[in-house]
Amino acid sequence: MISIFSVGQDFLSAQLKYVRVSEAWKSESSSIKSKFKAAGISSAGFYLFIRAFKQEKQIEAWVSSSPDGPFTLIANYDVCAASGGLGPKIKQGDLQVPEGVYSIDRFNPVSSFHLSLGIDYPNTADLKRSDKANPGGDIFIHGACASIGCLAITDTYINELYMIAVLARSSGQSKIPVHIFPFRMDGNAMQLVDRIQSSNQWKPFWENLANVYRFFEEQSKPGVWKSNTSGNYILSN
Fold it and tell me: Which residues contact 28 (CB under 8 A, 6 or more apart)?
């Protein structure tokens, strides 16, 4: 079955040496291949984008044959555990799931939570608003349905998402973007944000983060974002 993914096999082969990854591949490869076929995108060379919504408790997997899109939704996973509430993570031990623009920086095939994909929190935007001494870290998308600041999905779901991410990396995608939002930041939601009292500390942050959400909705690609000196996300491409 591995032969259908002929681009950049080294990372895939290394991951398949781990028992959980090998089992995930055996159980999910047919489903993954079917999803790509339905989307009309080659599973031998593609780009992956992940979006997460804390309030809706959902994680989406989008793929494209080009980094410039358009991206197609191929999977939607229910979050079965996520600690904390709305608002970004600011310090170690606050149990908050981060909000912002991130990427996958680690693949853990021997995680205490089955399989896990590491998120590169804190980023430069986070460091503008987080605790300077101890902003926290070790944030993952993982299995096992337990959370202390992470996004947990079922073991079956993480088997599939993990393998899609492995295949994206094996296809040559060195940076897999992950956008985490407090909620779907559409017009109705942002009208509610507009009504939040100006003293609410997260209103300006959410209004800035909504630009990231709207860009993907309008352009069908995640874009490349960086942080300015104020800790706001600005488009860099």
Answer: 159, 160, 163
Could you give the number of structural domains in the chain?
1
Asked whether the beta carbons of 115 and 24 are under 8 A apart, the reply is yes
The dihedral built from the CA positions of residue 137, 202, 83 and 187, taken in this order, carries a sign that is: negative
Q: What is the CATH number of the domain that holds 7?
A: 2.40.440.10
Bridge-based pairing state of the strands 72-78 and 139-142: unpaired
| pLDDT tens-place string over residues 176-218 | 999 999 999 998 888 888 887 767 889 999 999 999 999 999 9
Interval 161-172: pLDDT, tens: 999 999 999 999
Q: Give the global pTM.
A: 0.93
Q: Which domain holds residue 132?
A: 2-235
The residue type found at 125 is A
* Strands, E assignment, 1-138: 47-53, 58-64, 72-78, 100-111, 114-119
